[in-house]
Amino acid sequence: MIRVGELDPGPLDAITDVAGVRVGHTTLIEGDDVRTGVTVVLPTPDGSLCFAAPHRLNGNGELTGLEWVRETGLLTTPIGITNTFSVGVVRDALVTSQHRANRGRWHLPVVGETYDGRLNDIEGMHVKAEHVFAALESATDGSGEQGCVGGGTGMICYGFKGGIGEASRRTDDHVVGVLVQANHGRRRRLAIDGVPVGRELDAERIPLPADGPAGSIIVVVATDAPLLPHQCARLAQRAALGIARTGGAGEDSSGDLLLAFATGNRDPEANGTATVVPNERLNGLFYAAIEATEQAIVNALLAAKTMTGRDGTTVHALPHEALLEVMQRYGRA
User: Fold this and answer.
1) Would you call 216 a catalytic residue per the annotation?
2) Residue tagged active-site, from 211, 254, 267, 311
3) Range 15-329 classified under CATH 3.60.70.12
4) Of 17, 256, 267, 311, which residue is the catalytic one?
5) Helix runs in the chain, H state only
6) 114, 39, 44: which is closest to 77 by C-alpha?
7) Which tens digits make up the pLDDT trace of 155-197?
8) CA distance 289 to 294
9) Is position 86 annotated as part of the catalytic site?
10) Does residue 8 have an active-site annotation?
11) pTM beyond cutoff 0.90
């Protein structure tokens, strides 16, 4: 493992270090060309509402339900993450699951996507409602799988195999956890803890997959701090700096979408009251969001394995020994 930043992680170094948050995955690897899946993030253990807000670094992507989040400042459903062409089925399945749980009759689920069509038969739309239900059923607050799992199964990050990554950072009073679906970035721009890894491990050393779009990233930020919606928006915006620290630039072809939610004011509509962190005390949370996002991207790269998929396309994992040699040479290991 490579640690980035200055703050300490929580015990799991995962978004589930925020109490009550659960994560579930369904991974689909079938035949030569199905490499996809779905990931769900459940913000609260009982389905209660929490304050939330999004941020757009670049909008060539989709994260459904955001207009209602912006309008009310509330996150009202679990979050789904999948491939570009499976957003609809995941959204519909989340509606069904909300009805089954007797959580009202009106829902606008939040579902994000990144494109996995270089490794996956994305046109086949292999993600089905039962896969979403299975991910919800398997969701846990423990230390989960990362890399080639769930929605991240077929994703590519900085020309290496990417996917799902998680991390957390602690402040004096609170914890910030992050989950990413990392499918973005150009190889030569990759930096880890300030080291130009992408230039050191270029295409001459580690083959690149065939040319394609720069890709996208979905970032989910959670905190147990009692933030108001406008403060969640500020937290999501700062998490975008964690993308930048690894080399992401919000390229024109990239969908870089972020959502932050805060569980410190549990079910504020039902309770009718809310507490708040003074703005002058937000810096620690900002730093935590930046570092946890950077670490989550690095963790996605470290956990992913080399994968061959559609049309025989092979995407190589970031080689650990070569990475360690580079980091040691720059005095970072």
Assistant:
1) yes
2) 254
3) yes
4) 256
5) 66-72, 87-100, 129-138, 197-200, 229-246, 268-271, 283-303, 320-329
6) 44
7) 999 999 999 999 999 999 999 999 999 999 999 999 999 999 9
8) 9
9) no
10) no
11) yes
